[in-house]
Amino acid sequence: MAGSASVHWDGSVIRVHYRGYIDGAAMREGTNGVKRCLLQRQPSAILFDTIEVEGYSPEVRAPGVEMFRALKDNGVGRAVAISTSSAVRMMGSVFAFATGMPLEFVDSRAEGERRVALR
Asked: Which residues have a Cβ under 8 Å from the Cβ of 7 and sit 6 or more positions away?
């Protein structure tokens, strides 16, 4: 399945939902959406839902690092990723390490929402 990213506000949290095989275009779609949200107001956190990700290409690295830099530069203090995939966790860790932006991983949507205080 071709990859996609949707980005929206859920209260004071930016929520990013990735689906399918994430290539550079899908990651760029997510990055651009996050940057648009950051121009609107200051989020309390960002929540990445990657449960439906089927894989990713190496092209995700540059736009992913760009997104994490924007988050850090805008003072976003909490980033949580929902993932059961070790490959997705590895790539997320690369983004976090490259930018110094902390990223916490959880296994379920309920736990992710709890960590960013959505529910």
From this structure: 14, 15, 16, 17, 30, 33, 34, 36, 37
